[in-house]
Amino acid sequence: MRTLGTIGKWLVYGTIAVSLAACGGGGGSSAVTTTNNGNPNGNTGNTGDTNNTQTITVPLKTAKIACGSDHSLIVGSNGVVKALGRNDYGQLGDGSTINRGTPIQVSGLTNVAAVAGGENHSLALKSDGTVWGWGSNYNGQLGDGTNTNHSTPVQVGISNVSAISASWHQSVALKSDGTVWLWGLGYGSTPAKMGNLTNVVAIATGAYFVLALKNDGTVWAWGDNGAGQLGNGTYTNSTLPVKVDSLTNVIAIAACEDASYAIKSDGTAWAWGYWEMVGYPVTGGGNAKTPSQITGISGVTTIAASYSHVLALGTGGAIGSFWSWGQANNYGELGDGTFLVDRRTPVPVIGISYVTDIAAGRDHSLAVKSDGTVWGWGRADYGQIGLNPTMTNYPTLTKTPVQILNLP
Question: How many Å is the maximal CA-CA distance in the chain?
């Protein structure tokens, strides 16, 4: 077993467009009450417990939809995965490298419980706790011990997994024992355990950093901190988990390229990191090195974050409780009926209601409605929202949601 956190160096390569939709997308409304001993040691790599006991309720979320950079993944009620969009690295998992504007079934996968999308790779978590990957593998992000791309799923060398997340060229898994495992860029081609981090109930990945929610309601982070996305009041990178400042009672987390998000048990949303993505004006200019509340939204249940935009879903998903913001809207991915209009604070997503699940790609967005239908908007030129690239006068974007057809 490889264990991280004692030696090694976090690898940072600069700014890359990355999709992190799976960290925000989720489904289900069941909950579990857990008791854990909190860590009062502040911003250190010491993640051991003390005798301070807290009890919080953490919603159980299983990602039934996910976005890669330019592709989409959808789990059907029958446990099979359909994929569409860009496929030059085999990230659709159908054995080809042909882009698809019509959903195609991922080869050989059944009993899938959750999916996650990296830039050009995909992950699936099966109900037996195994993880499978396909697509780009240049940095070992498929976790099969090689650097060979795969256009059909291969099994990752890990078991007893309860949650997955993917970023640019990295993959992360949460095991049922509350430990976190990583592989890909900076970690190698087989899963490695993150130090002595325990009692984790949720994970999220940014471009070069990772968030972990512990079952005492605290958030821990490690990796690149160039925009303050670790939330510990500094711009110092960390190879070990550090505690996010002044943030408690958290029930869900998400991350984009270089900003972080948390939902508290009272339904408020909080953010820190890159100033254009946090959803609020940063006092004094610059980036936000510690969390602040995002105003204008309430009753938040889910956040999906990506390279350039963020989606937030409120209770019931009805009109007026679905919002977006971001540093770019080049393809209408915010869903507010505009494009080429930045929104630095939340605005309502229009044209869709009764939403139960959301996911964000680099320039496109997905939502599941209460009737089980899946809808997409934003960038469309690879077929990632279900519009066929071979159509005459094929649209490169849509500012309003369109239903994705041919799904189970």
Answer: 66
Judged against a pLDDT cut of 90, whether residue 2 lies above it is answered with: no
Greater confidence (62 vs 30) lies with: 62
Work out the number of other CB atoms within 10 angstroms of the CB of residue 160: 12
Nearest to 63 by CA among 117, 17, 144, 11: 117
Coil/strand/helix, residue 317: helix
Decide if domain 19-40+55-404 falls under CATH 2.130.10.30: yes
Q: Which two tokens stand for residue 344?
A: 């630095």
Contacts of 258 (CB under 8 A, 6+ apart): 15, 206, 207, 209, 224, 226, 227, 229, 273, 274, 277
In this prediction, residue 390 has a pLDDT band, given cuts at 50, 70 and 90, of low
- C-alpha dihedral, 145 to 90 to 119 to 408, nearest 10°: -110
Pairing of β 200-205 and β 188-194: unpaired
Cα–Cα–Cα angle for 11, 14, 19, rounded to 5 degrees: 95
Summarised one tens digit per residue, pLDDT across range 36-72 is: 333 333 333 444 443 343 444 455 456 799 999 999 9
Answer yes or no: pTM beyond 0.70. yes
Measured between alpha carbons, how far is 233 from 80 in angstroms, rounded to an integer? 43
**What stretches of 256-330 adopt beta strand conformation (E)?**
259-264, 269-273, 288-293, 300-305, 309-314, 322-326
